[in-house]
Design brief:
With 472 residues, this protein is an all-alpha fold. The protein is 79% helix and 2% strand. The protein has one domain. The model has no long low-confidence stretch (mean pLDDT 85).
């Protein structure tokens, strides 16, 4: 298979299949299985692509055979391919979960495929405007999915999601237009080369707009206000896709544009560290105070995203690698917890416990690898005579302790409280859904026991970001 074909497949397969499934009734089980097969093929191609770029370096293709600088650039490096693989993998599990429960909307499989195509295209493009286009495709599909099953609270959640993401899209589009105005290009590599020659005041304003846009997407404090209502109002598989796949736009955008605007990232490091710290503490304290399982997981998502920003604020090879690693860890954790929280049974309870331990950072769950990576990044921060490193390390430990408290409370309420179990016992709980959750938990455990591939991914992604940064 040629490199250009391998680059197109992760987004091309779900895109073509989405157009087909849009003409079919998604409530038929075979249509759902067809969509899942397409996502599975997209996931496999993304994994193969990741292995290819790890071994031989980035792939870059100009669509349509146009000259470079004229045609749209498609580009796969370690970070982009890895983000595509993880996001599509989470959506694959979530779609299978809903198919086993019974799809209730004819458009659901097609929307999931469109969202997967948008995410894969976004992660595998080297053109900023193309990034924006795929951003809109994935967010539009996610907006419709948020209102899936059309209950009143789900429609309200979809409305909130649409308004907030419309605002984020406008802010990001303004930043894209501004970058083009000051650099004369939308190709990421060219912008990275030219940005050092631009008036610093202009670039700092553009960088601030990009930070706001992606912080909204990631749900970081104080841009978190929309996230609890949307996650609580969403159907569990949709919440898993929003938190485990769509939210990756935020962390990927901050990492990718942080590499392009590397000097601005360095200048804004203190702000990133403050926002990350606030997100960790706010999300954890709110999660401890909540009783509804979906609210606890929603506020946990805010707190866990703070670790990504903390690592990004540290920067350098160690910090960027930790941010990539923790994003992958957080995606798998959130997908597992949202899918498991609505099911019952001893094996499901054990699977949820693995996800909870992973969030806390208890070995051998995968979350331990992520926490150690962020811990190393905190130790690497030697600013202000070394006291800042001590503060960051203390914050990581405090966040872990609070995570243990709210995860223990949540497990007790969901799986040990007899009254709660009795109230949820009437809902559908087919064996296929339990099997999927157990499989995902086994994956989280296996990756924690054998973390070397993830560590290699993190180092490779950090190396690519630094090599392609705009630093002189």
């Amino acid at each position: 298979m040629t490199d250009s074909a391998l680059l197109v497949l992760p987004a091309g397969i779900p895109w073509v299949l989405a157009a087909v499934c849009a003409l079919l009734d998604g409530r038929r089980r075979w249509v759902g299985r067809l969509a899942a097969a397409g996502l599975g093929a997209s996931f496999v191609s993304a994994v193969v692509l990741t292995r290819r770029v790890l071994d031989q370096g980035p792939i870059e293709v100009v669509a349509g055979g146009w000259p470079e600088g004229v045609g749209i650039v498609l580009r796969a490096d370690v970070m982009g391919a890895a983000f595509a693989a993880v996001s599509v993998g989470v959506m694959f599990f979530s779609l299978l979960y809903e198919v086993s429960l019974g799809v209730r909307s004819r458009t659901f499989p097609a929307l999931v495929l469109f969202m997967a195509a948008g995410l894969s295209g976004l992660f595998l493009t080297g053109d900023i405007f193309n990034f924006y286009v795929f951003f809109e495709v994935s967010v539009t599909a996610a907006y419709v999915l948020t209102g899936y099953r059309e209950k009143d609270y789900q429609v309200r959640a979809a409305f909130i999601f649409a308004i907030v993401n419309l605002f984020g899209s406008v802010v990001f589009l303004i930043a894209v237009a501004s970058l083009y105005h000051v650099t004369g290009s939308l190709q990421m590599s060219t912008v990275a080369e030219r940005v050092s020659d631009v008036n610093p005041n202009s670039i700092i304003v553009i960088a601030a707009a990009i930070l706001v846009a992606f912080s909204l997407k990631l749900g970081l404090f104080p841009f978190h206000f929309w996230l609890p209502a949307v996650y609580v109002g969403s159907h569990p598989p949709v919440a898993a896709m929003l938190s485990g796949a769509l939210a990756n736009i935020g962390s990927y955008g901050l990492l990718r544009f942080g590499g392009i605007l590397s000097e601005e990232l360095r200048l804004g490091a203190v702000a990133l560290l403050v926002l990350g710290s606030a997100s960790i503490l706010y999300g954890a304290l709110q999660a401890v105070s909540r009783h509804n399982k979906d609210e606890v997981l929603a506020y946990s998502a805010i707190g866990q995203a703070g670790y990504i920003l903390l690592a990004l604020g540290v920067g350098g090879p160690v910090g960027l690698s930790a941010a990539v690693i923790y994003t992958v860890v957080n995606s798998l954790n959130k997908a597992l917890l949202f899918l498991a929280a609505s099911l019952r049974g001893p094996l499901v309870a054990a699977s949820f416990a693995i996800g909870a331990f992973s969030v806390v950072g208890v070995p051998p769950a995968l979350g331990f690898v992520g926490k150690i990576a962020v811990f190393k990044a905190g130790l690497a921060e030697d600013g202000a005579g070394g006291w800042l490193a001590a503060v960051l390390v203390a914050l990581i430990f405090l966040g872990g302790a609070l995570s243990f408290v709210y995860m223990f409370q949540l497990y007790q309420r969901v799986f040990l409280d007899r009254e709660a179990q009795g109230s949820d016992g009437k809902q559908a709980n087919p064996p296929a859904t339990r099997f999927l959750v157990i499989t995902l938990a086994a994956l989280v455990l296996a990756m924690g026991l054998w973390p070397e591939p993830l560590l290699v991914l993190g180092e490779g992604a950090a190396s690519d970001l630094i090599d392609n940064s705009g630093s002189p």
